[in-house]
Write a structure and sequence with these properties.
With 250 residues, the chain is an alpha+beta fold. It folds into two domains: 26-130, Rossmann fold; 146-249, 4-Layer Sandwich (S-adenosylmethionine decarboxylase), CATH 3.60.90.10. It is 21% helix and 25% strand. The protein has helices at 51-62, 77-81, 87-96, 160-173, 228-239; strands at residues 26-29, 36-37, 48-49, 66-70, 103-105, 146-154, 183-187, 191-198, 201-208, 214-222, 243-249. The strands form three sheets. A six-stranded antiparallel β-sheet has the order 7-8-9-10-6-11, covered by helices on one side.
Length: 250
């Protein structure tokens, strides 16, 4: 019996690549508030280029990335109703700023029309400030590396035996392969900590028992992808009423 009834019985599927699907790394780059900024008036012809940020994108171009400038200019319903199209203007503007790129799409023209929106949520998204950080470059983009930090406050201390149980059970939840049993240690100025070694990498738990409320920080780093929502769901189920608040970031 098909466990996925939404899939067509006659449709064939292939195994997709997460990166370089067509053997070419592609980057979509926003324009406004990314490679240019505004003063009092937010009008496209008054945009001031940020040459430091433009240099970051030009570097990607020089390294072989296929660069597409992707902007929602002219993509709002009001702009479309008024017949506004900023494609040609924007192309010439990018050239005048010294931008290196292969293609451009706006909100009204191009191969990859960008809709007007207020938030983009994507596993491959970065703010321009995160691109080309000093001392860091992704030397192996084809290798999966995923990190998640989960922190929370508790009514009662995160005891060492509970940290061991958490490590063992989260390993099953995330389908990781234990290499050894969890190990714990105690530091009088902080509290208990625990380490779990996986074939896919590992995780640490740190607890601060001498504060109110009690605090914990869990650092998960793997070379195998996992779902963050599974971690949060399990963490809430694990602590139950002992949990005051939980937060996380990748």
């Amino acid at each position: 019996m098909n466990d996925h009834p939404e899939a067509s019985q006659n449709q064939e599927f292939h195994e997709s690549k997460q990166f370089a699907a067509d053997n070419q790394f592609v980057v979509l780059v926003d324009i406004d508030e990314t490679v240019c900024f505004y003063g009092e008036k937010r009008r496209y012809d008054l945009a001031e280029p940020n040459h430091e940020n433009i240099a970051k994108i030009n570097k990607l171009y020089d390294e072989g990335w296929y660069v597409i400038y992707w902007t929602a200019r002219g993509g709002s319903e009001k702009s479309k109703a008024a017949g506004r199209c900023y494609y040609d203007f924007t192309w010439n503007q990018l050239i005048s700023w010294g931008c290196k790129f292969h293609d451009l799409s706006t909100g009204s023209k191009g191969k990859y029309i960008k809709p007007a929106c207020d938030l983009v949520i994507d596993d491959k998204s970065k703010r321009i400030e995160e691109v080309g950080e000093a001392g860091w470059q992704d030397l192996a983009p084809e290798i999966c590396r995923q990190r998640m930090v989960v922190e929370g406050t508790l009514h009662n201390a995160f005891a060492p035996e509970d940290q061991i149980r958490y490590c063992k059970e989260i390993s099953k939840v995330l389908d990781m392969t234990p290499v050894s049993e969890p190990t714990t240690d105690f530091a009088k100025d902080y509290g208990w900590c625990c380490f779990m070694h996986w074939k896919e990498s590992g995780m640490h738990i740190y607890s601060w028992d001498h504060r109110s409320p009690k605090f914990f920080s869990i650092d998960i780093y793997t070379c195998k992808s996992f779902k963050e929502e599974d971690v949060i769901r399990y963490t809430r189920e694990f602590f139950k009423e002992n949990l005051i608040e939980v937060t996380w970031k990748d």
